[in-house]
Every structure is written in C-alpha cells, then in structure tokens.
Amino acid sequence: MSFNLNDCKLCGETNSLVKDDNTNNTICRICGAITKENEIEEINDFQKLLIPQNDKLLEYMNPTQEENSLPQKTNQKLKQNSKKESNSLEMKINLKIEEFCKKMNLEHKTTEKVKGLTKKVSDAKKIKYRLIEYIIASIIFVICRNEDNPKTMQEISSELELDRKAVNRCFNNIRDIIVENKNQIPQTVSRLINAYCDKVLENNNDDLKKISNQISENVCKYELIAGRNPTTIAATCILIASQLLNLNIGKKIISKKIGTTENTIINAYGVLKEYFSSIVPIEYKNEVQRLENVD
C-alpha cells in the first residue's frame, strides 16, 4: 500500500496533513499525529507491545512535549485520542487478566487485586515489556502468595501455557514494583513452607514444618541467601529439615512437588553449607553431618 505525501501514515486519512509554521512540524488534522522529518514519533514500549498487530497504532504523546506550540483544536484532539487509547489498552489488559484468572480458577476478589497491581506496573512505565501475558502471570504469582494460596511458577506457567523461564525473567524485572513489602519475606517463606510440606509429605508433617520454619527464620534473619526467590528459600529449608529428620525426601521429590528445579535448590543448599551449624535447631546440632550428602 502506497501513501500520498499528504496522507497520514498513522490513521490512513487522505489529504489530512497540515504544516505548522511555528514548529515546522506536519500535523494530521484528523488524529493529531505529529510528523517530524517524515518520521512519525514512536509510541512507548508499553503501548507497542500491548496493541495487537492488526490494530492501528495511535500515538501516545507526552503532554508536556510541544503542547503549547499546537493549535488549540489539534491539542484537544490529541488529548482525546490519548485518553481513548489509554482506556482501550486498559480494557484489553483487564480482559486478558480475566481470561487468565478464569483459567486459574481464581476468585473475583483475587482477579480485582491482579488488575490493581497490573495498573500499578502500567503506571510506573519503567519496564520494557515483552508480552503482557508474562507480566500478568508474574502478578498472579505474587497475589496468590500474598493470599496464602501460593502457586508455583511452574503451575502458573503450565496452566496459562507460557514459558516458565520467561515468566521468571519477567518477575525478576518487575519484582521491585509488584513486591510491595520487602520485610514480608520471612512471613512469606513460612507460609510457603507450610503449604509445600503438605505437598511433599501429606501426613505427620508437623515436625517437618516446625524444623523447616526454624531454619528459615535464621536464614532470613541473617540474610544468608538474600535476593533468592521465597520459593527457593522454602524448598531449601524443607530439604535441610528432611535430612535432619532422616526422611526419605530428597531434592528430586521436593523439586517435583513444588515445581522448581533441582539445580535451583541445590545451588541455594550449597551456599548454606558453611552455616549449617548456625541455622539448624540446637537439638539437631549432632545431626549436621547428615547434611553433607544430599540425595
């Protein structure tokens, strides 16, 4: 498809471009798009990746940029288009959230929390988005964890048919925005331990929960593996506790039940090796030698 020099390349309207003598810019009298040296200004990363390819791309302009130099009618038209585009994007995002939450069988209140936190990420405009699906999946992970209904990245990725590694990368990129209370980590790890112990040992797991939590308190208190995902911390503490109790639960079983990788657990386990005598409960000090060999 070819364009006349007076046709707007953004909205496609014919003979719609007018010259602004004050700025030497060309402005579309229909959609308000600004053309500088025959190049239409690009929209920001967030919009570019959220708008489907078959939709027309409408320009989102910084309201402080050259606003005073535009004719009043064009300025108003531009603001109206920006507002419509913003509303359209929010609607598309919310529809995708509802679709994902329905797949995950999440309650309405949880869905609304996912929408609220997603809007916070959108408003921050600090992230270069790849696909909105991975952002929503990361936020579902956080909200479910906060509601004491933890779901692993593996569960979420599998249910939503997304690549787990990509979800993990996205989560790490927006962690500072979506994890609001950084001091909440110890409580979060404790909740995960209780939930995961029920998965790896369905019955008679009180001792496993108790010792795992005691170990995690020391690990978090002294920030021995600071920056690790709470799921990794919880899984590693369960592995240590299971070895102390001489239970037939190794890294393979734990990784499979929890949905993380063996390497992730064993790497964290290796970092904690030099601290074993300090983090295990005092009544199990004599059992530390069991921790040297992990099956």
Description:
The chain folds into 3 domains: 17-83, no CATH class; 87-182, Cyclin-like (Cyclin A, domain 1, Orthogonal Bundle); 183-291, Cyclin-like (Cyclin A, domain 1, Orthogonal Bundle), CATH 1.10.472.10. Helix content is 55%, strand content 4%. It has 12 helices and 4 strands. It has a 4-stranded antiparallel beta sheet, with no helix packed on it. A hairpin with a 5-residue loop joins strand 2 (25-28) and strand 3. The longest helix has 32 residues, at 72-103. 32% of the residues are buried.
A few lines on this structure:
By secondary structure, this protein is mainly alpha-helical. Helix content is 55%, strand content 4%.
Topology:
Layout (H helix, E strand, L loop, with lengths): L16 E4 L4 E4 L5 E3 L2 E2 L4 H6 L21 H32 L4 H17 L7 H15 L6 H8 L3 H15 L6 H16 L5 H16 L8 H15 L6 H8 L3 H11 L3 H4 L16
Antiparallel strand pairs: 1-2, 2-3, 3-4
> Which strands sit side by side, in order, in the main sheet?
1-2-3-4
From the 3D structure, determine the CATH topology of the largest domain. Cyclin A, domain 1
CATH superfamily of the largest domain: Cyclin-like
The computed structural class is mainly alpha
How is the biggest beta sheet arranged? Answer: 4 strands, antiparallel
Give the C-alpha Rg.
26 Å
